[in-house]
Write a structure and sequence with these properties.
Layout: H1 20-24, E1 28-39, E2 46-57, E3 61-65, H2 72-79, E4 87-92, E5 95-96, H3 102-112, E6 113-116, H4 128-139, H5 145-154, H6 170-182, E7 188-192, H7 200-215, E8 219-223, H8 227-233, E9 236-241, E10 244-249, H9 251-256, H10 261-270
Parallel strand pairs: 3-8, 3-9, 6-7, 7-8
Antiparallel strand pairs: 1-2, 1-4, 4-5, 9-10
Helix pairs in contact: 4-6, 6-7
Length: about 270
Amino acid sequence: MRPGPTVSDDNGEGSVFVDAATQSATGIAARAIDVWKVYGSGEAQVVALRGVDVELERSRYTAIMGPSGSGKSTLMHCLAGLDTVSRGEVYIADVKVTGLNDAGLTTLRREKVGFVFQQFNLLPTLSAEENILLPLAIAGRKPDQGWFDTVVDAVNLRDRLSHRPAQLSGGQQQRVAIARALAMRPTLMLFDEVTSALDPELVGEVLDVMRQLAEEGMTMMVVTHEMGFAREVGTWLIFTDGGMVVERGNPTEVFANPQTERLQQFLAKVL
């Protein structure tokens, strides 16, 4: 991948992906307050989240890890307004997500949130360029050519824009998905196990893009099994188990000195 742009441009107007005002702002980009998520009822009831409190600070890379079924993806989906909560409140910046109607949720996601899934979710009949621009077309917004060029060059897809998904590697398809999310100029990027479906040889090219976003101050929440990447790049780490946040803190400190027996057991198996 070509070297990423520097954090500040010549005019001191901020990084490529994060404007100066956002980059210098402090505070909370998103938060969950006493969030519960329950699926089903009776004997079939599953409690996916149990009173979760989480804050995502602006310009911070927050990594979420935990065993399968621990509530990681459910929490992320609730934060993005892709799933409703059974109890509690969710905010993106100062906007209360819980209680918004469908139109309000759609507007919020278009204006604030970029979401990248484990599966690429590209339309097979469209080219890479058309897939990247699709959300703008659906929203009735005219593409900004300068911004489009910036995004395409950052994910290193210039020579693949005319290719359809079947003509792209898994890593290239995931980079198209990242570019599609960035095309909407989100203030918050959410990544849900985006390397899990990739061949090991292709993981690095996707992590390179995510590393660049983190270095530029993009607010990111990443559900990941890439422990080394979370420790190297992450600025905050959350460990979930049984639908609860068991431990949180600076990744380097958490990996070096886990405070809970459950996290100690988990790390012993995965590291």
